[in-house]
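Field: sequence (string)
Field: structure_tokens (string)

Example rows 1 and 2, in order.
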Amino acid sequence: MAVGWAPDGAVQDQIDATVESEVARARSGMAHGESLEKCEECGEEIPERRRRAVPGVRRCVHCQAEADAQQRIERSQYNRRGSKDSQLK
């Protein structure tokens, strides 16, 4: 049930768009391709066990943990429901 001038199904369309964009964002951050032997951030050697476990790995465990923490901080400051962009999809 839509409200105001919104067509029927508009709320579900917005939910679907939110889910699709989050899935696309997650997939874009996944490692792919050939694993590096040295971390692209600090230059430390990436252990062979990590390279086999995570195909396409580009960072050592420490640098990846820092990058993940920074990404969580950046995403927590963004209110998708309150953005006008999410209402236009």
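Row 2 begins here:
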Amino acid sequence: MALVKPGWKIAVAVRDDLAVWQKLNVTAFVISGIGTGEPELIGEDYVDGSGRAYLPMLGIPVLVFVGDATGVRRAFDRALARDLMLSVYTEDLFTTGNDVDNRAAVAGVATDDLIVAGFSVAGDGKQVDKVFDRLKFHP
């Protein structure tokens, strides 16, 4: 039985200058990292009234924030400084087509030079709140 960590939050930040499809793509990718990075955040299987089972999902809400490039980068740096578990999607990943190339694109750039399109974090709710304090909820 999976146990969801009490007091934890999950949050995503995406840049406001991205196309809608890019925002959705970034959100999906970075959230997948949270689920694989912290299995205790995954709930139980879903089962419908006919007995059909569906894959489990994250067991706590996911908050999605938006901001300009500077604001998203500020939040990213604050997440790094707090040593929160995070996943990142850089601008370069829009030009790659597979996981191997994605990882190579990130590996080829120093942390301070990453052009962050979006990222997600999971951790203690108070620490997560401090990371996203200047971003707004995505409309």
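free_text_note (row 2): The chain has one domain: 8-44+51-133.
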